[in-house]
Amino acid sequence: MKTVLPDRQQSLVQWVSQATGINTFGVKVRLRGNDLHILCEGTECPQRWRTLSDLLQALQQTGLDILTNNEQPSIYQVFVYGRRKGEQRPKWCHRVYLNQIDKHLEQVEQALLADSKKSIQSGGALIVSNESLARQGNPEAIARYLSETLSPLGVSVQAKIKPYQPKNSQAEENRLWIFCQSSYSPDASLLAEPIAQKLRDLKLSGYQDAVIVSQVSGETAPDWLLRVDLTPPEVMLKEWARWGDVQAIARLLTEVLSGLKVAVQASVKESTLHIFCTPAFDPLGTAAIPDKIVCLEAILPQLEAIAPQGILAATVYGQKAGDKQPTWIDWLALPAAKHPAFATSPLDLANTGDEPAIIFLLERLLNPDLDWRLLTGGIRVLLLKKNDLLHIMCDAPVCPGREQVASKITQFIRQLKILGIMGVRVYGRRAGNKEPFWHYGLDLEHRQRLVPEATPEFAATSKYVNDLVTSETSEPILRPDLTTQEVQSFVTEVARDWIATASTTAKKFLLRSQLFTESHQSAEANPDIQGFKIALVWGTLGLLLTLQTDWVLGRMIARTTPSSSKVASVTLPSSSEHKASLTSGKTQSQKTPFFTSTSKTKSPPNQSSVFNASEFTQSDETPTKNLAAAPLKEKATATAILLAARSQMPSFNVRQLDEQLALYKQRLARTGSPPDVLIIGSSRALRGVDPAALSKALATQGYSNLDVFNFGINGATAQVVDFVIRHVLEPSELPKIIIWADGARAFNGGREDITFKSIAASAGYKQAFQKTPTTANSNDLPENQVSSGEQKIKEEKQEISTYEAVNQSLNQALASLSTSYQNRDQIKSLLQKQLLLLGHNQTVPSQKQLTDGTSDESTFQQAVDFDGFLPLSIRFNPARYYQIHSRVPGNYDNDYKSFQVEGEQDTAFQEVLQFAQSQKISLVFVNMPLTGDYLDPVRRQYEQQFQQYMLRLATNPNFIYRDLSQQWLKANDYFSDPSHLNRFGAYEVSKKLANDPMIPWPAK
Length: 1004
What we know:
The structure is a single chain. The protein is an alpha/beta fold. Helix content is 44%, strand content 15%. The protein contains 33 helices and 23 strands. The strands form six sheets. It has a five-stranded parallel beta sheet with strand order 18-17-19-20-21, sandwiched between helices. A four-stranded mixed beta sheet has the order 1-2-3-4. Strands 5-6-7-8 form a four-stranded mixed beta sheet, with helices on one face. A hairpin with a 2-residue loop joins β22 (975-977) and β23. It starts with 6 loop residues before the first helix and ends in a 10-residue tail after the last helix. The model is unreliable at 1-6, 119-124, 450-455, 459-481, 521-526, 562-623, 772-801 and 840-861 (pLDDT under 50).
């Protein structure tokens, strides 16, 4: 089968064939990075020097850049190979530097003349290596030098010199830029240290640093940047020696005395430097002891020029290696003995807060291997004091690991006890990046969490998370001798017996109806006509029963309709009165005394009654606290319903999602841009973070006019949040910071995700995936979502449409015949009330209690404001709450059923993390507060698993984790039920988030 070469390769092959006279079938070319590889083969191996002579003469006349297109990288060197056809390895190989073709030609001519003698005569041309040319600072030579290492990896190199203006200097300096281009995205950690070592080996002068830019071919933006410190090793050694580093001093003295064949070892004891001079090479022990005068004359000027910090004197010893006693000793006074500024040790300076001393000690701590630091530049430390915090940035060609440096730094700073420093923030990044890859924080003392006036350059983004501390529960134990396993085994046995009995009874009943038979009995070939008669009788009876039930329900609704209207007219003032009560703490406190005095005149002195559950009045035993909260805003329920009905987007089978999306789209249309902060999550976010309170609190911290929207959805899990962020909303509709307020329940991969299943079965879900290819990369979609969203749409679209049409027509026909179908909502409400009365006939709450929210919170579920927030004024009172609601322990809570953080919820969360990182969105997860009454031992165990899971993920860039789960375990007034905040708790959470210095709030 004939292989057709690309036009560029065809032209190169034809050019090589014409130059060497070798048939085109015997020529193969390959371009890798900046290297061109040419293979010449034939029935007999082509002669090396003759082939090279022909190629070099052709290269003199024709530039290779003419034969390649403009998009290809420049060619710096050519590798020519020769072999016989059929052989695997080439017989010879020759490297040609294109900038030294004349010297190569001279070498080849000498080789041709001496070919008969099989040796190259002396006096031929000397080929200068790329490294020697690169040391002179020529950018093209530097690029050729680096291409020797990078071209085998398929990376081409180009070097340029660009002037830049340093911040601290008026003189303009040069900066070396290295541009790397490849057809793939090489890992920065793969190239960082090799490039840094290569550049530092050159010992370039005139450059402080170099910037490495990696870019994929065809892309406009660089893939990553890397800064390489080009400070010469001698300068680095002198800088550390100036601070009294023993290794650096010994290295410098060794270089000075190496010409005298003297080896140097050094140590420091009590501000005195001890220097031991021994013969550099003495395997037989016959070498002479170093001369005292010569050694002192070489050492003294060096020590005076260095003036090591904190070292007052030096003692110099002359001896043979291995001798216990020195042959001669001398003492030298150093500059620190005369100048008090040099006498203080670096550690004492660091204790006073001296930043250069702290930087030196930290860099010495993080760079124990001096050779590695001189080779690559090592880990550099940047320091910044901000109020009572010390911010420390660590960068290196490869980002230092958090486990590698964070604990060392914090332990060292804790030992220093710097005055005025109450906390440390440590960051890590790759040299050349502006933002940190990871962050770590530690408070040395208890400090007030206030947002600083200005953000540090290497922006602090997060802080440590408090460890969970378990405490004993106050819940009484009726049988302490019973274990959990015994209780579970007893319940299992009882359930098994009950299921067996129920199955037997149901089976006997179905067999007696003669509509069913035993499964093991063989069916008759000719069915009995008696079976059809029985089926017809039962079907007729069922139809008559259905018609009669419909008629009875219709009559019941007809009787109750007038009275219902009267009740509605009576309760309307109550609801308006309730709405008026939800104003602010101040207004509420002004109205309370009037109702309190009235209750005292109508009630007996010892009666502890409460008028309603919204806390207009309280008994004297439970005095009301006036809690702060943001003023209530206008409700948006009617507007949301209307907007959702008019929306062209199909429903998601979750009414609240439809209405929240409609409100969000209206906000986008009104402002023309997404809000500055988006709050998302389940009902714990919906009720737990007040946008108005958050915006006001941020304004007091200097972040004025921030637009905040609450996109909370009841029952939202990680899958639901992932779907909303990545598929419902466009990237342009998202802000630069998302507050995800929720808890462990939303990440339980062991329970059934009812909310997401309802969404996945909706028409809106299918349409969201139909538009996905135009807005996101299909590779980013989970496989299960792709199959359910695209394959089902293509294969079942027509079938679903036909089914829906038939179903709708049947519903319309039955509705016209039924007397109760039109009033089905009233029937449902009536049945619910009757069941509630039957279940609580001993303690039946008053109608007013049912309407004001304590017993029935469903009336408030859709009463959100135009910021998407659901404000509830109900205060959790365990004594009243558990009279109406059952107390469900954690091991019977469906939200924690088969609890595990791995699974589909974890997969969805990972997708959100990757999406946030790709869109440069800061994602802040807030573990919302819970009551101590809710956190029983089982739930505490699950919460600990969730904490560990979040701590593992807290190292991801652009992700911040904040834990408030145990903030108010006993503050029941901040909650509407055991696990949900009311508007007073939401106000406190909003203030706490606004005052958190680790959250990167956007500034307008």
